[in-house]
Write a structure and sequence with these properties.
Strand content: 25-35%
Distance between the termini: 98 Å
CATH topology of the largest domain: Acetylcholine Binding Protein, Chain: A
Radius of gyration: 36 Å
Order of helices and strands: HEEEEEEEEEEEHHHH
Structural class: alpha+beta
CATH class of the largest domain: Mainly Beta
Length: 333
């Protein structure tokens, strides 16, 4: 059967237009490649020099990375985000370049020694718990290109690792995307990028009884001495005032020693509150000594003044113990 020439012409024209349209159509966008997973682990070899005044500590650790894409090297530019003295940080790679393992994956091990920083909350001092952290990012690759993944055993502590003055807890590793609100001046970026961040946390606590004895026992001894003024006869006014003032000055010296170990913070710590209660107790005791002396000068019987002093001692001591217990409960519970 022969087709009309007019239909044949129209079909040819439509085919030509369709071909041109296909040629002019933009190519389909290629799907973005998934980020390279980097399996990571950390071995903490040692921890030293925890300094509350500067919120710093020294960590000696190894970090290993394992990945499958040979075109990337996440170990080339690792950034220690909370490094305190970057010039003093020592990085020692086990090999100059990543090595290929028998299973085809890439592997690298790096030894770091350096000082790190983490703001220590000291509200509960001396019964505070602190987290010693190390934060690591790949400086060159955003989380769209490289994502860290915890290895089978992501964090281990060296056997026998100890930190004088602290009890070391179980370490953990967390990995999360760290958002940034800037492109860091890169005009090639349409929007800020996130970066995969490794956070290794080693919790440490102070042993309660040794620190209680070390910090609070001297203060308790001073308070007991201050309480002795109520057991000295009110006729010995000079000795009573001298003992009270000595106790007060000793408290000031002890508080100064405690403060020398801590940074300047804009809040009260638990030990601050306990010392404030001690200052009030000694100050009120000195006031009671003065009032007793005035009563004697007005002709009040010595036995009556002594009875008032004993009542003041019982009342003041009870109030101080209750106030100290309330402070501890308020800060720790």
């Amino acid at each position: 059967m022969r087709w009309p020439s007019s239909l044949i012409g129209r079909s040819s024209a439509l085919a030509a237009v369709s071909a041109l349209a296909l040629c002019a159509a933009p190519p389909l966008a290629q799907a973005a490649a998934p980020p390279t997973k980097v399996y990571t682990g950390v071995y903490v070899n040692d921890i030293q020099d925890v300094d509350l005044e500067t919120d710093t500590y020294t960590v000696d650790f190894y970090i290993w990375m394992r990945w499958n894409n040979p075109k990337v090297d996440p170990s080339a530019k690792l950034d220690l985000m909370n490094s305190y003295d970057s010039w003093g940080t020592v990085a020692t790679p086990a090999s100059e370049r990543p090595v290929r393992l028998k299973d085809g994956s890439m592997y690298r091990l790096i030894h770091y020694q350096g000082k790190f920083n983490n703001k220590f909350p000291l509200t509960k001092y001396p019964f505070d718990e602190q987290d010693l952290t190390v934060q690591i990012e790949d400086f060159n690759s955003s989380s769209e290109k490289v994502v860290f993944v915890p290895d089978a055993k992501p964090v281990e502590l060296a056997s026998g690792l100890s930190l004088p003055g602290y009890e070391v807890g179980t370490p953990t590793m967390t990995i999360a995307d760290q958002p940034y609100s800037t492109t860091f001046g890169d005009t090639g970026l349409k929007a800020p990028e996130d970066y995969s961040r490794i956070t290794v946390t080693v919790p440490v606590t102070r042993p309660g009884l040794p620190y209680t004895i070390k910090l609070l026992l001297p203060m308790i001894v001073v308070l007991l001495c201050a309480g002795l003024v109520f057991l000295i006869s009110p006729i010995h006014i000079d000795g009573r005032i001298a003992l009270s003032i000595t106790a007060l000055l000793t408290l000031v010296a002890l508080k100064f020693m405690v403060d020398s170990e801590l940074p300047n913070v804009d809040y009260l710590t638990m030990v601050d509150a306990i010392y404030i209660a001690a200052f009030i107790f000694v100050g009120l005791g000195l006031l009671q000594v003065v009032l007793s002396s005035r009563r004697l000068n007005r002709g009040e019987a010595v036995d009556a003044v002594i009875a008032r002093d004993h009542k003041a001692l019982i009342l003041g001591g009870s109030v101080y113990v209750a106030a100290s217990a309330a402070v501890v409960a308020l800060f720790l519970l």
